[in-house]
Amino acid sequence: MNPQKKFHLVFSMVMGAMMVFLMTFVITLVNLGWVPNFLSAWMRSFVIAYLVAVPVIFFTAPVARRLTGKLLGVAAG
Questions:
Q1: Global confidence as pTM
Q2: How many domains is the chain built from?
């Protein structure tokens, strides 16, 4: 795998983990509150969301980068 593709894959995994960690925590807390099974419900949500988020980020990040470049009138790197 070439370094740029490897970077994009690792970036997708890291970005997915950061976003999913925060979002699933907040949404689980809003929906359930501080219940005894909060951690297990949160971790279940995290795993499911992470498995969805990484491919979504991997395939949509380049599109978002190009759209942002067009909106700002700059070349997307």
A1: 0.82
A2: 1
Handedness of CA 64, 5, 7, 59 (dihedral sign): positive
Report yes or no: 28 and 41 within 8 Å, Cβ to Cβ. yes
Q: Is residue 9 part of a domain?
A: yes
Tokens representing 44 are: 């279940």
In angstroms, the CA 26 to CA 48 distance is 15
Domain contains 45: yes
Range of the domain at 45: 3-72
Q: What is the pLDDT of residues 4-17, one digit of tens each?
A: 889 989 999 999 99
Please provide the DSSP assignment of the chain as one string: --HHHHHHHHHHHHHHHHHHHHHHHHHHHHHH-S-TTHHHHHHHHHHHHHHHHHHHHHHHHHHHHHHHHHHHTS---
